[in-house]
Every structure is written in structure tokens, then in C-alpha cells.
Amino acid sequence: IKGRNQCFVVLCIPHIHAVWACVRSCPANCVCTQERSCSVLCDRAGLLQIPSNFPCEASSINLDKNSIKFVSERAFGTLPSLKSLSLQHNNISFITPGAFKGLPRLTELKMAHNEYIRYLHTRTFTALKRLVRLDLADCNLFNIPDRIFIELPALQELFCFQNNFRRIPGAIRGMENLTHVYLERNKIEAVAYNSLQGLTRLKYLNLQDNRINVIHDHAFQDCQKMEYLYLNDNLLNDLPENSFDGLRHLKMLSLGGNFLRNVSKTWFRDLVELEVLYLDRNRVNYIEEGAFENLTSLVSLHLNSNNLTTLPFSVFRPVYFLGRLYLFRNPWECDCRLKWLKEWMENYRLVRDILCVSPSSVAGIDLADVLFDRSPEGYCLDPVEFNVTFYSPTPTEEPHSTTESKFSSLISKLLLQEGLPEEVANTTEALTNTTLLDRLGDEVSSGVGEYAISCSFHLLALITAQAVMVLQSK
Questions:
Q1: Which residue has the higher pLDDT, 206 or 294?
Q2: In a domain, 411, yes or no
Q3: Chain-centre distance of CA 21, in angstroms?
């Protein structure tokens, strides 16, 4: 027991000392906690500058959501145990070269959401040899020096999304330990042949929501360990034949939201481990035969929101397809060319919502509900196309009434029988037509029944007699 007590005392004294030291040295307006070694929480503290003294034992410091504007050289002194530092959501506009010296064990640095950072010096991150994760998202950066990461050999994850880059930063070339790069929501216009040079361990690359309109040949040739590639919501209208050659470990490829019209059989020929492919929200109207034949691991294919009218069996071979197929929002022509798809839908139930646009007899009907007839010889018959035409009067043409025309003809005959000149009869006919429309309304012109026609005839005779009297008096 005595030995255990001595051991207990020996083991606990350093721990008690560390807790006491962490709290004793805590900066004003901050909270220090020993939950995870020594954590210093200074977020939302109204700070205008970085505190001058931090506990020497600090392993993490949080300075988020303050009003810090400037990070001076060796701003944090020497903190040999610090692993995580966060300066997000401040007003930082300048970082002095060497600002993070004295932090030899720092593995994570978060500087995101500092909208006034427009420039970084080449030696901004000097001495951070163990830094693994760097976050510079939403910092209004237009570029960064090509050699800024030269002293960050351990860097694996780089977050630079929502900045103003017009090209992929040259600083990442040759960063052989990089595994994740986030460059979405910038203004990048191209993926050049050397943009990703030397990124031999890259697994995740996000370039979505940029302005990329061209990808050079062999642009991804060094990224043969890539697993996730996002190129959606750009301005691509075509791709090189060998765009993704060598990416045999790619599991997810997103090309949605571009301007692609055709899908080449060469694009995906090496993607034998691809599981999810997005081609949605393009303008695809043609898929080359064999385009998907090597995608033997595919579990989800998104072709929705394109201009596809048909999907020939020879192009898409469902024998290889093991998951879901998304085809909605396309102008489908539900003829015999899609009969195989209807049968496949019924057997596997892995696709739905294929609304037909034509032929007219099945327009608006889901392909699953279309019935295909057979000829006496057993061949599939396309649904019929209705040829329905409607009479539509021109703006200057009045719709005419058959009943009214008969009455007008009768008036003319009666007037001619009375011995009136033909031109007077024509004038009276015109007068009678307008009078009928005004005084009888739709009752006569629409032919509502024998009684209405009889009454209208007597009224018409009275009007005619009055007209004759007027003309004779003249």
C-alpha cells in the first residue's frame, strides 16, 4: 500500500501542477479548461489584438469571432505543446512573416473567413514543419506565392475555397503529401497540364462552382490515387479523350451542371472502381456506344436534367449496372427503342420518373405505364402520334355562324322576290347580320334549339320588313 501511495503521489503531482498552471496563466477575457490537456477559449471575447501571454502548456487556442486585425511576428511567443490554433471570423488584414514561429508542434491552423486578407507573404507559414491542416477559406485571396508552402512538408489538407483565384495555385505543385484540396467557389478558368503536377497522394480534389472551361490533356496524370473529383457547376462543353486516364482508384466523379452535349466512350475507360458518376444538369443528347461499358463497379449514375430523347440498349448495358439510375427531366420519346428500359424498370425497380414527351398519345405518361402493342409478326409497335388540327380564326377573321348564314341567304331570296335590286339586297343582308349579332347575342349563332331558331326567324322577318319599308320610302 505504501508503494502504491508513493506511486500515486508521483503520478498525480505533475497533473495537478499542469491544471493549476493552465488556469493560472489564462489570458484575461478567456476561459482555460483541462478537458483536453490545456485548451484556451478566447472566442467571442471582443478582443482587438492577440493576448500577449498564453499558458505554456496550451495545446489548443480558439480566437474565433473577435476583431483582431494584425498578427505580428512571433505573436504567440513559444508554445511547445500547441497543436491547434484557430483565428476564424476576425478582421485580419496582414500577417507578418514569421508570425507563427515558436509553435513547433502545430498541426492545425484555421484562418478562414477573414475577408480582408488579400495577400500572403512567402514566409507567412515558415517553421510550421508539422502542419497537417491549413484553412484559408473565404479570405478574399487573389493569389498566393508559389513557394509559400515550401516549409510545410507535412501538409495534407488545404482549404482555399471561396476566394478569388483565377488559376489553381502553383504553390501546391510538388506537395507530395497533400491528400485533400478544396478550391470550390473560386474563379478558376482552367486545369492546366501542370496544375496538379507531383500530387501523387492526392485523394480528394474539389473544383466545383468555378469558371473552368478547359481541361488540358493529361491534367490528372500524376493523381493516380485520386478517389473523389468534383468538377460540377463549371463551363465545360467538352473534355479531352484521355481526361481521366490512369484514375483507376476514382470512386466518385461529378461533372454535373456543365454544358456537355456528348459523352465519349473514351472518358471513363480507366475508371474500373468508379461507384458514383454525375452527368446531370448538362445538355447531353448523345451518348457514344460503349461509354459506360468499363464501369463495372458503378452503383449510381445520374443522367437527369439533360436533353436525352432515347437511351439505346447498346449504349447502356444494365448487365453491368448494380445500383440506381436517375433519368428524370429529359424529353423522352417513348417508342420501341425504350421498351427494354421499361422492362428493366419492372424487373429491377432501380429507376423511376421517366415522363414521356412524345409520341403525343403517351405525352405526360410515365414510361412504366406505357403499353407497347405487337404486330401480327411479333414486332413492337410504337405508340401512335395523334395528328389533331384545330381551326383558329385570324385576328381579322370573324367566326361565322351556320344558322346566321342560312338566315342571311333567306333574306336575300325574299328581298329578290320583292323585286329589289341585287345590290340593295346585299346591303340589307349586311345590315341584318350586324343587327342579329347585337340584338340576338349568342342564342341564334350557337343554334340552341328549334324553338330559338323559330323565334329568331320571326324576329328576322319583322326586321326585314322594316328594312324594306325604309328602303321603299327612299
A1: 206
A2: yes
A3: 52
